[in-house]
Amino acid sequence: MRYLTLKEMKNLAHRYKFRFSKAKGQSFLYDPQLLDKICRVANLSKDSFVLEIGSGMGNLSLLLSQYAAKVVGVEIDEKLCKILDEVMGPQPNFFLIEDDILKVDLSFIEKEKRKYEIKVVANLPYRMATEITLYLLEKGHRLIDEMYLMLQKEVAERLASPPKRKARSAISVIVQYYSEIEILFHVPPRVFYPQPKVTSSFVKMTPYKEPRERWSVEDEHLFFKLVKEAFKRKRKTLLNNLKGSFDEMLLKEILRSMDLSETIRAEELSLEEWAALSNALKEAISNTNST
Question: Is residue 285's pLDDT more than 90?
Answer without folding.
Answer: no
